[in-house]
Structures are given as C-alpha cells and as structure tokens.
Amino acid sequence: MAKITSVSPLAPAAFPDLPVIGGVRFATVAAGVHYAGRTDVMLAELAPGTTVAGAFTRSATRAAPVLDCQAKIGTHSDAGAAIIVNSGNSNAFTGRNGVDATYAVTSAVAAALNLPETRVFSSSTGVIGEPLPYERITAKMQELTTALDSGGIGAAARAIMTTDTFPKGSATEVTINGKTVRIAGIAKGSGMIAPDMATMLVYIFTDAKADLPVLQSMASALNAKTFNCITVDSDTSTSDTLLVAATGASGVDVTEESVGFMEGLRRVMLDLAHQVVRDGEGATKFVEVSVTGAHSDSDAHIHAKSIANSPLVKTAIAGEDPNWGRIVMAVGKSGARADRDALSIWFGPILVAEKGWVSPDYSEQAAAEYMKNQDLVIHVDLGLGGGTALVWTCDLTHEYISINADYRS
After folding, report:
1. What angle do CA 125, 282, 12 make, to 5 degrees?
2. What is the pLDDT of residue 405?
3. Which of 75, 241, 278, 350 is deepest in the core (most CB within 10 A)?
4. Which residues contact 121 (CB under 8 A, 6 or more apart)?
5. 191, 28, 162: which is closest to 90 by C-alpha?
6. What are the Cα distances from residue 320, in Å, to 119, 143, 174?
7. pLDDT score of 17
8. Is 255 within 8 Å of 214 (Cβ atoms)?
9. How far is CA 103 from CA 65, 68, 118, 263, 377, in A?
10. What is the tens place of the pLDDT at every residue in 321-375?
11. How many Å separate Cα 192 from the centre of its chain?
C-alpha cells in the first residue's frame, strides 16, 4: 500500500480532546492484517440498551461487512453491542470467503463479550479483492477485550486509518432539559471518496437515549447534508459505513423534536466530513462549491457535484488558475437545468461572469491572487429558481496519482 510521507497541509493543528462517552469502551491492537508495526484493528464495546443507526454505500459491489451491517441495523435489542473495524484489507469482492470471514470475526467478538452475534457490527477498509486474513484478528480477541478502555477513542481513530495522513475526530456537548448530552465521533477517509448514502468509515457515539426510528431518521437526514455532500475523486467506495450509537448513559431522552441534539449531531458529522476532504489524497486546497438559483435543490446538488468532481476544475484549482470557463463547462454537462444567459459565477467575493458573459468588472489578476488561498469558495447562481446546495471538495494534484499508482504495492 502506498506510503504516506507527510501530513496534509489542510490538517487540523491537533487531534481534538474527545470526551468520554458513557456506555462505550474502546481497544486497539496490531494484528498485522496488512500493515506492519502499527495498530490496525479497533473494537468498541457498547452498553446494554444501546441503539445503533446507520447509513451505507449503495455501491452494487459493496463489501461483505457492509451487507452484514445492513442486515442487522434495523433491529433493536436490549443486549449490548459492539463495533469491530480492521484497516488494510476491505474484505470486498472476496466471494464466499468474505462472508465467512465477516462471520468469523463477528462471532469471535460476540463470544468474547457475551453478545448475540446479531449485535456485532463490523467494517473493513483497505485493498479490494484480497481475502481477509481474519484469523489474525480473531487471535487477538483476548488482547482486545482485556484492553477495553473508556478513554480509548483517539487510539481507535488511528487504528482505522489507511492512506489517511491524520486521524479524524470531533465532539460537542448539548444541553437538553438542563442536562448535558455528549456526542463524539471518529472517521477515516482520504481517497475513493464520493459517498452515495468513499473508502470512508464513520463512527459516532452519544450518551443520549434514543429510540431506533428517531436515531435512524436523524442519521439519514443529516448524512444527506454532510457526508453525501463531499467528494475527493468522484469514486464511491465498496465499504462506506456510517454508524451512530446512542448508549442512553446520560438518561436524557432524544425525540424528533430535540432540535438541539440534532444540531449537535450535525456539527460533528459536518466537521468529520470536512476533515475527510481536508485529507483528500494529495490535497492542497479545500473548496466549497455553493450553488443557488437552481430549479430545485436536487438540480443544485447535481450542478455542485459536477463542478466539484470535474478533473479540469480540480486541476485548475491545484494550479491556482482562475479558469472560470471550466465552471461553465461543468454546469453545462451536469444534466440538470441551466440557462447560459442567466448564469453567474463568483470566485470568493469576485464576480467573474454574469448573464452568460464575463463581468465587465472582472479582474483576472485579482482572481489569480484569490486562488492562492488554501480555503476557496466557488459560487454559481443559475438564475432559475430557489434551489440551493453546498458541496465540499479538494484540488487534484500529482500526489494523488503517486499515492494511487502505488496503492497495492
């Protein structure tokens, strides 16, 4: 697998100080699944009564662990639960071996923690098409369960990394009926990122108490506005998994009317989504694509993704070239409604084009200067209606090619 030599220039200054979430314990271990000399398996033990909601890749070639999670996610149990994740091998496109490997791992966890196998959720991330050496994971089960610790979430974030250059974490606290509720999450993802719910895994934990339908509704709705609005390279992974676990340890009930909780969960999910983009393979620029004036929100999202996914747009950004013609191209090819003579484009505060032509006040020099920033905003107004969308992406550099050309070696 390609060696990552430096941390992304867009990385946060440090991994955040994540709070302990009541009802969750973590452990990590070096199992040698693919990597040597680093942790590559994470186990999270969840207290009895925990509800677990999820969202998953809609790839037609999704991995065995994804299919297993999808089969388990819609049911609630008063029993405890667990999440086990390995990095280095995605256990995808591995046929019956993949199914057997998934069951072997989840069964081992269930036995070690005295859980029903149906309450063990697993994920695998890494190389596609190679059998998962699951016996390396099951052999470490005693070591994992012995090491379980309520303060181990930071180590868990590091164990699930593949081509990531930094671990990703986020947390917040909200007050509901005078009581504090904590939310903390970790994620991995750097390449193969264009979620359709990249290789992206996300695990969020809260001490709130939530019925499964409520938690699932929140997770699905917020996923649509966060992780489904990022793209690094337009490639949807076989392994994308988002799990949200509510342990109930705070004793605070969350309902559909709990606006404060939903806003807190949104902040954590959006922060993690942005961190995935900021760790895009080879990225040097973080880009927000804002589309307004579309015929509908759906059309706006299509236009925004077309711009954000365009290799020509992304390479222009990498080269700090204000090539606004490529924005025009991306809008025109998207398939959503557009009118050339109603279109306006901005680079940050700079009006570039309006009414189907370059703005008379446009300054190429000012635009070129703006493109030197690490954080950029491209704004397009279609002039057709009230539809809006926000999508986040990064530039496309030669380093992306270097990382992925050597990925399996």
Report:
1. 80
2. 72
3. 241
4. 52, 54, 68, 69, 72, 73, 81, 82, 83, 84, 106, 243
5. 162
6. 49, 50, 40
7. 96
8. yes
9. 9, 9, 10, 36, 45
10. 999 999 999 999 999 999 999 999 999 999 999 988 999 999 999 999 999 999 9
11. 11
* Torsion 47-160-168-121 (CA) sign: negative
Kindly list the catalytic residues. Answer: 199
Amino acid letter, 156: A
Q: Please name the amino acid found at residue 279.
A: D
pLDDT tens profile 166-223: 999 999 999 999 999 999 999 998 655 445 544 579 999 999 999 999 999 999 999 9
- 184: buried, middle or exposed (CB in 10 Å: 19+, 13-18, 0-12)? buried
Query: Which residue from 174, 169, 201 is spatially nearest to 185, judged by alpha carbons?
Result: 169
Paired tokens of 70: 């999808």
Q: How confident is the model at residue 237 (pLDDT cuts 50, 70, 90)?
A: low
> Looking at the predicted structure, is the pLDDT value of residue 26 above 90?
yes
In which element (H, E) is residue 28 found?
Answer: strand 24-29
For residue 244, give the nearest of 3, 399, 73 by alpha carbon.
73
Enter the tokens of residue 15.
Answer: 């991994």
